[in-house]
Amino acid sequence: MLEHLARKLTRKEKQGSSVEFDSSGPVPNHLAVIMDGNGRWAKMRNLPRIAGHRAGMKTVKEIVKASDEIGVKYLTMYAFSTENWKRPREEVDFLMKLPQEFLSTELEELIERNVQIRMVGSKDELPAHTLKALETAEERTKQNTGLQLIFALNYGGRKEIALAVKDIGTRLQAGEIDLEQLDEEMISRHLYTSDIPDPDLLIRTSGELRLSNFMLWQLAYTELWFTDVLWPDFTREHLYQAIAEYQGRARRYGAV
Ligand code: IPE
Ligand code: IPE
Ligand code: MG
């Protein structure tokens, strides 16, 4: 299936045509991506896993540009989960260097594109160099009004909800709020994504059909799209294909 699709796309690209979505139709306001399959991509080539992460970084660059060009307003990229610390030390070290590497080559262009860079996740456990790269990027792009590029780094959906509950509990204890005020809206406002709308479309690559602790609260009514394509092989054509399918979905939100 995967190879079949890849062949089909290659053939189409050679013919000069490409996958199309309706450019006057709805484009997801918030696109969230679980970038998965870097390790398997490398393994298939007898390369170390980190080679897959480096290749995956190129895909990030391409998908950021493509998303910006088609009018996505918020793009969240799941780059490192709270569970990914379980990986071998060398791999974690490499992943923690990727934000610097990415930003050192991309930040100027992203500034030119009016992109605002942000991070969601727990900053506490991050190495100082990783945090510094991200905070510099956040600081230098905070006035930008274009695409919001959000890196989910050391992000865990359950941790995020637990922290929100703790914050709300503290405010309750201090008498700043009443129990009657506690509703969905209040919980949303205490998440990392307090000022970010819920994702409209979630893409996960590499054939895994799970959320892996990503945006558990926010994905309640998100359209899900899975592909067998590994993240380093993911192209803008695949993105267009996902958007074309998104445009064909009926979002009912429980109504008829
Ligand atoms: C996704 O690729 C990147 C991160 C989770 C950081 P993986 O590294 O999970 O690749 P696979 O799933 O092992 O192929
Ligand atoms: C999810 O991928 C995390 C990121 C893409 C950053 P994983 O590869 O860590 O997920 P599992 O372990 O297969 O569920
Ligand atoms: Mg994986």
Describe this entry's structure for a reader.
This protein is of the alpha/beta class. It has a single domain, classed as Undecaprenyl pyrophosphate synthetase. Helices cover 45% and strands 13% of the residues. The protein has eight helices and six strands; from the N terminus they run αβααβαβαβααββα. It has helices at 2-14, 38-44, 49-70, 89-112, 128-141, 157-173, 184-189, 236-247, and strands spanning 30-34, 74-81, 116-120, 148-155, 201-204, 223-226. A six-stranded parallel β-sheet has the order 3-4-2-1-5-6, with helices on both faces. Helix 4 (89-112) packs parallel to helix 5. The longest helix is centred in the middle third of the chain and has 24 residues, at 89-112. The radius of gyration is 19 Å and the shape is globular. It starts with a helix and ends in a 9-residue tail after the last helix. Mean pLDDT is 94; it is low at 6-17. The structure holds 3-methylbut-3-enyl trihydrogen diphosphate (2 copies) and magnesium ion. Residues 35-40, 80, 84, 95, 206 line the site of one 3-methylbut-3-enyl trihydrogen diphosphate.
Short précis:
This protein is of the alpha/beta class. The chain contains eight helices and six strands.
User: What's the pLDDT, averaged over the residues?
Assistant: 94
Count the strands? 6
Q: Portion of residues in helices?
A: 40-55%
Q: Which ligands occur here?
A: 3-methylbut-3-enyl trihydrogen diphosphate, magnesium ion
Strand content: 5-15%
Write the CATH architecture name. 3-Layer(aba) Sandwich
* CATH level 1 name: Alpha Beta
Q: Can you tell me the number of structural domains?
A: 1
Please identify the structural class as seen in this structure.
alpha/beta
Number of helices: 8
Strand order of the largest sheet: 3-4-2-1-5-6
